[in-house]
Amino acid sequence: MEKRIIVALDFNEAKIALNLVDSLDPELCRLKVGKELYTACGPDLLKQIQDRGFEVFLDLKFHDIPNTVAKAVNVAGNMGVWMLNVHASGGQAMMEAAREALLEFGSQRPKLIAVTVLTSLAQVDLHQIGIECSPEEQVSKLAFLTRDAGLDGVVCSAAETRLLRAQLPKEFCLVTPGIRRATDATGDQKRVLGPADAVRSGSNYLVVGRPITQAKSPSEALFEFNSAIASVS
Ligand code: C5P
């Protein structure tokens, strides 16, 4: 089975995170460790998760001078993560340095993707930081820059998936959060897509947090997400 679901471990305590991890099957999903859990628990917890057989997307969104990002990315490569990310707005040189820092891992290297425009930023926020084009234009611009820097793909919102899929090569990977079944609460996500629609729109990997982590039975919820996409993929 192609594992398209990445479950977001948005927790601040190892015990709670591992409780959830132990209810899931590494054959059926991958896991995302972001800033909250990593800041709280660090590489030790990452290793415990990997020791249970899970592949990890380390979502730390690096954004710094090229040398610093390259070194951090290399450390993540040594930790054996499956995927990691940087901010595309760090620029082409920064992204190229990140890509080069992973070359030593050969075919075992993690997938390297970039964040384009944070979905929390609207037009007015972009203007405040000196960006005059629309969020959609900026997303496209940064996605092309990411491709030019030789990265594997981008994180993109449900609203952007179809457009980016149409503009970018087939092998360029799209990772999409904001996925909800019809019965799920949307929470703070403004624009959501169902799992099957996300895959149909061209998303390769779906990041799912609360619909699985807060479910009465996380494994049943994961089964439902996988069943929904099995019919399309
Ligand atoms: O609980 P939920 O399914 O909304 O979690 C989605 C996950 O994807 C969270 O870890 C969130 O930080 C992340 N994410 C997002 N929107 C983005 C980028 C990342 O929701 N644009």
What does this molecule look like?
It is built from ten helices and eight strands. It has an eight-stranded parallel β-barrel, surrounded by six helices. It is α/β, with parallel strands linked by helices. The protein has helices at residues 14-21, 35-51, 66-78, 92-100, 123-128, 135-148, 161-167, 195-200, 210-213, 218-230, and strands spanning 5-8, 30-34, 56-62, 83-87, 111-115, 153-155, 173-176, 205-208. It has one domain: TIM Barrel, CATH 3.20.20. Helix content is 42%, strand content 16%. The protein starts with a strand and ends with a helix. Helix 4 links the parallel strand 4 (83-87) and strand 5. The structure holds cytidine-5'-monophosphate. Cytidine-5'-monophosphate binds at residues 8, 10, 34, 119, 155, 157, 177-178, 187, 189, 207-211.
Summarize the structure.
By secondary structure, the chain is of the alpha/beta class. The protein has ten helices and eight strands.
What is the element layout, followed by pairings?
Layout: E1 5-8, H1 14-21, E2 30-34, H2 35-51, E3 56-62, H3 66-78, E4 83-87, H4 92-100, E5 111-115, H5 123-128, H6 135-148, E6 153-155, H7 161-167, E7 173-176, H8 195-200, E8 205-208, H9 210-213, H10 218-230
Parallel strand pairs: 1-2, 1-8, 2-3, 3-4, 4-5, 5-6, 6-7, 7-8
Helix pairs in contact: 1-2, 3-4
Cytidine-5'-monophosphate (C5P) binds near residues 187 and 207.
CATH superfamily: Aldolase class I
Question: What are the bound molecules?
Answer: cytidine-5'-monophosphate
Q: What is the number of strand segments?
A: 8
Unreliable segments of 5+ consecutive residues: none
| CATH domain fold name | TIM Barrel
Global structural class: alpha/beta
Radius of gyration: 17 Å
Count of DSSP H/I helices: 10
**Which CATH-level-2 architecture?**
Alpha-Beta Barrel
Mean pLDDT: 96
User: Strand percentage, roughly?
Assistant: 15-25%
| Adjacency order of strands in the biggest sheet | 1-2-3-4-5-6-7-8
What's the oligomerization state?
A: single chain
Query: How many domains comprise the coordinates?
Result: 1
The major β-sheet equals: 8 strands, parallel, barrel
**Helix fraction bin:** 40-55%
The shape, in one word, is globular
Helix-strand pattern = EHEHEHEHEHHEHEHEHH
For the termini, the CA-CA separation is 10 Å
CATH C-level: Alpha Beta
